[in-house]
Amino acid sequence: MSRFTCALACAPLVPWVFVAPAHGQTADAAPANDILVVGQTQKPISIEPRGLSVSLGDEQFAGVNAANVEDLMKYAPDFFVRTRFIGDNNAVPGFRGTHSTQSARTLAMVDGFVISNFLGNSFNFPPAWGVVSPNEVQQFDIVYGPYSARYGGNSMGGIVNITTRPPDKTELFVNLQNFFQPYDQFKTREDLWGWSAEGGFAWKPKDSAWGVRVSARRLINQGQPMQFYQLGYSASAYNDPSAGTPIGGAVVDPKLMPVTGTKVVTPVVGDYSLTHSRQDQARAELRYDAGAVHGELLFAYWWNEEKTLNPRSYITDAAGRPFYGDATGLVSFGGHGYTLNAASSFRQGLAYKNEYLLGGKIAAPVAGFDVQLNISTLRFARQDTYQSNGYAAGLADGAGQWTHQGPTGWYTGDLIAMRTIGRHAIAFGVDGNRYETDQSVFATTNWRTGTAPRLSTRTFGRSNMIGGFAEDAIALDDATRLTLGVRYDRWRAYDGGITAIAKAGPLTGLPVTQLYASRSDDAWSPKIALRHVFAGEWIAELSLAMATRFPTVGELFQGSLNGDGSFNPNSFDPKLKPERSKDANLLLRHRFGPVTLTGSAFYQRVRNTIFQFVGFNQNGVSTSSYKNIDLTRQYGLELIAETRDWPVRGMDIDGNGAWIDAITVSNPSDRASEGVQFPRIPRWRLNGNLRYRVTPALQAVVGVRYASRPNTDLDGLYRGDDYGYTSELFALDLKANVDINDHFRLSAGVNNLTNDRAWVYHPYPQRTFMIEAGVKL
């Protein structure tokens, strides 16, 4: 049975459309002409709801088996997060037709403090989710598209804001989780375990304006191998099986991605090791509320450690011993010869990443305006990766590579003033940020400790942006509101450079540094939204916007040096242009008794999309690097259903279905990509979450996620369902929640009950069990 058939078989979970967590408006919700938010919770949405907007709270969170904070959004409409395992620190979110490595198109925040890593644009630059745990989240708000002038061009895909639990009462809390995944892929078969423990307290004296909340969490987990080793293809060796060491035990899987330009599928010879992850998180928050004056001070620290110390070889030599490669660099298997580099295969690794968020906020009335000031910084206190040069060096603590990053991080701030004058709700403000990075790669004699480091390369750079906006929401009448906005941004990238060791010329053996030219640009971005309440409480909203997303330092300063230390002009694009989008979104929403339906039609056209692909650069040379795609386009339809106490009392169903058409329209660097569905964007997304209160103390939950098979590459040549591809996805999740009493709760669940094997190049988790216990006093 296909995954799509399985998804359709689960359709009875919802009345008309497959569903994802979107909570329905209750009878005491705000007036329809003020709010058009899917899943409006008891708390108002924390970001400006322009276009499709979703707000998730405790009722939706109860329906999720959540170990990572980003799990709480996994059923949201036409939205995904690339989380590969519990404890993954490369979880990139995506909206609608945004590729899962276009991380710079999402603005992510915690309590309004920016956690988006705009140092690059790929899975290596995810938001800093680790500064908050799932149980500390009060609300998740998601806005699709750049329709509010209050946010910069990095909201081109959308905006996510996490609102954490405030210290609004005195309490103690403890939460424990345990995870188990029996994993089986190729010849890797392991029972993988993990757990988390969290505790803390909130202190809020009666009649006091002050409140404090402190919490700490530790998570330890074994994740499945993220990659698998394959034999290398060489045209000369392939037809000469006598050229290498005979081996046995390799896995021949015809579903694997073939070598580019050939029909050869290379055998799998081992895995990259289980991922042993440890994360520690500490958080402290101080709040002050006295009348109209509000203040917050937040500090969160996240320690992350990943170990990949046990790569597994599937292959054996003639004597039956495990084989990890030898000095010949060649092996023979199945009548063919292949390459196997012993220095770059079966490597061992250690990775450490520590980061902290410090943010302050104050809001108060000033001269008739409601004024709010936010200032924050997120810093990487440590980011080091160590890798051995092959298996033998790993065991012997021999030669390897050390990658050190720092100083790295960012500073952000914004000042907003708001006031209502008659029928006008006006707002204006300024904001700014500065991002900086510095990364060095060293060769070392002891890979574990980085002993006797010898510089190989160093890259560094900075960017900043200053922006301002003005917005006026005009109540044309009691049923109609027109919002006009405009934004201006001034961007600069500077202090960029690269250092490498010269291998030729008069500077042979010496470090040579070349600096990039500074870049600057600016953009105006107009916005408009018109909302109207028709007879019978039908609500419609049309939103139009333009947005500009400037290059990150990782995209702009990405070149390399020639052997003599001079810039290689074919390795980067010194004239990389910013992305410029034109967006439209039409919403229609109506409640039919216990069922609320929201329909959405969206359109986005992006000039100069920045994407990493193989194509011709500015010099007409074929390279793999970040380039501009002249024009990409996406449009689609979304239908969201929300039911409460229907079709039976105690049952809530939330859901969405989305159809997306995202293509490359014009790309002179790679004409073969034109007219092709953009990579990693499925044609269909269908999600569902059903929560049923069986008894006052017992809640049963069913969740479903489905995405059709997308293209893996820009040209649409690779579509598959195995390692190396982006595959179709079907996941059926179950959960049960038991309230023992007002202070003690238990839950148990399973993700991916059918053990569907899905891929995003890397493998997604297989069937995973979870139990959880929580106490509040």
Offer a quick outline of the entry:
With 777 residues, the chain is mainly beta. Helices cover 3% and strands 54% of the residues.
- Silhouette: globular
CATH-assigned fold name? Maltoporin, Chain A
CATH homologous superfamily caption: TonB-dependent receptor, beta-barrel domain
What's the CATH architecture name?
Beta Barrel
For the largest beta-sheet, the strand count, sense and barrel status come to: 24 strands, antiparallel
CATH class: Mainly Beta
Percent strand equals over 45%
Query: What is the strand tally?
Result: 39
End-to-end separation in angstroms reads 48 Å
Report on this model:
The protein has a 24-stranded antiparallel β-sheet that branches. The protein has a single domain (3-186, 205-227, 272-278, 296-311, 346-776), classed as Maltoporin, Chain A. The chain has 777 residues and is mostly beta strands. The two termini are 48 Å apart. It contains five helices and 39 strands. The longest helix is centred in the first third of the chain and has 7 residues, at 3-9. Strand 4 (106-110) and strand 5 (113-114) form a beta hairpin. The chain is globular and about 85 Å long. GO terms for molecular function: siderophore uptake transmembrane transporter activity. This is TonB-dependent receptor.
